[in-house]
Design brief:
By secondary structure, this protein is an alpha+beta fold. It has a single domain (2-231), classed as 2,3-Dihydroxybiphenyl 1,2-Dioxygenase, domain 1 (Roll), CATH 3.10.180. It has helices spanning 13-24, 73-82, 147-157, 195-199, and strands at 2-10, 27-31, 34-38, 45-50, 63-70, 91-93, 97-103, 109-114, 136-144, 160-167, 172-178, 205-210, 222-228, 234-235, 241-244. An 8-stranded mixed sheet has the order 6-7-8-5-9-12-11-10. A 7-stranded mixed sheet has the order 2-3-4-1-13-15-14, covered by helices on one side. It is globular, with a radius of gyration of 17 Å. The chain starts with a strand and ends with a strand. It comes from Ruegeria profundi.
């Protein structure tokens, strides 16, 4: 099984697909009224569906962002700024990763996350002429106040918990699940040693930002997930759809 797509309802699928192709190096393909964009490989695509518009990111909603993992965030940011895309200044965020953020033209949040911590990036990690050549949609991030229910659902579908990351300074922790048989290098699920390994995975990981007991609202333009290999459509722990790919 494989997490194969994130479903988003947008105002103009064709135009937004063009942004992802031009600015972020994805491949775009029309599928009827929808447009599917993504990178080659095992990671998930974005399925852009008509009927949305007016999306505003809200920290009180279930859906948060996608994370695009790249070998060199600085090169990726330079390329985006050359194209007139506004991007936050990259920084090493605690012992989580070297990252920055931007929004697509319809307001959906994108995180750029480097394979290695800022101090550990190897020389010539990426080709300056093609900074997204080794990019991957590494994370789809949802928010939850009940990680036990999310854990039970993910495990029931055959996903494995790969990492838990404590962000106590901001009052939450992060939980990462994937369809994989891989085992993190450190058996301690909380270990910092697993994080750079996690950012290098070629598949998409489902990330939960967990604020214990918090209540989140549905995001109307988030239409759920697609899983290749799933036999029938189901509802996740929050009630959002998960459909066969």
């Amino acid at each position: 099984m494989r997490l194969s797509a994130l479903l988003l309802r947008v105002a103009n699928p064709e135009r937004l697909a063009g942004f992802y192709a031009d600015a972020l190096g994805m491949t775009a393909q029309a599928q009827g009224p929808n447009h599917r964009v993504g990178y080659a490989g095992q990671d998930a695509d974005l399925l852009l569906m008509p009927g949305g518009g007016g999306y505003t990111h809200d920290g009180g909603q279930r859906y948060w962002k996608i994370g695009i993992t790249v070998p060199d965030v600085d090169l990726a940011v330079s390329r985006l700024r050359q194209k007139g895309v506004e991007v936050s200044e990259p920084k090493q965020f605690l012992d989580i990763g070297y990252m920055c953020h931007l929004k697509d033209p319809e307001g959906f949040v994108i995180e750029l996350l480097q394979h290695d911590f800022q101090a550990n990036r190897p020389l010539n990690a990426a080709n300056p002429a093609a900074p997204f050549a080794k990019a991957c949609i590494g994370q789809i991030t949802l928010r939850t106040g009940n990680i036990a229910a999310e854990d039970a659902f993910c495990r029931a579908q055959g996903m494995r918990l790969l990492s838990i990351q404590d962000v106590a300074q901001l009052g939450f922790d992060l939980h990462f699940y994937a369809f994989t048989d891989e085992t993190p290098p450190d058996p301690d699920i909380w270990s910092v040693a697993n994080r750079e390994w996690l950012w290098k995975r070629p598949y998409t990981v489902l990330e939960f930002q967990h604020l214990s007991g918090a209540q989140f609202a549905p995001a109307p333009d988030y239409r759920g997930l697609e899983v290749q290999g799933l036999a029938v459509s189901v509802r996740d722990a929050f009630g959002d759809p998960v459909r066969p790919g």
